[in-house]
Design goal:
mainly alpha
């Protein structure tokens, strides 16, 4: 969803493929070959621990793709905090809180060029 950001903690809300996990890129862009053949494109980050390369993809992974999968797993599992839930925030405004006023500020900024 445009404007929605997720502060990754446990991974119970953040989408594995669709949310920025804090490094300004999406895993579906960085690991495009894996994303294209994955079975569950709506998977949340907290499911990563239970996923394996045999059941998560529509076909068997080559050794190169298996290495990418292992690199991605290591990256994702290293970013999670098992204690706190994920937090949703509004990323189109410095307040980080959605309000009608923040939406209008963003819209005006876009049209006024400020």
């Amino acid at each position: 969803m445009a404007g929605r950001g997720v502060q990754l903690n446990r991974g119970n809300i953040a989408g594995l493929w669709s949310d920025d996990l804090g490094d300004n890129f999406l895993l579906k862009d960085k690991y495009l070959e894996l994303f294209e053949i994955c079975i569950n494109k709506e998977c949340t980050v907290d499911k990563m621990e239970s996923l394996n390369h045999l059941s998560a993809f529509r076909r068997r992974l080559s050794s190169e793709m298996l290495q990418k999968w292992n690199d991605m797993r290591k990256y994702v599992l290293g970013k999670t905090d098992k204690v706190k839930n994920d937090e949703i925030y509004w990323k189109l405004d410095n307040s980080r809180e959605y309000s009608t006023k923040s939406m209008y500020r963003w819209l005006e900024k876009k049209h006024c060029g400020s």
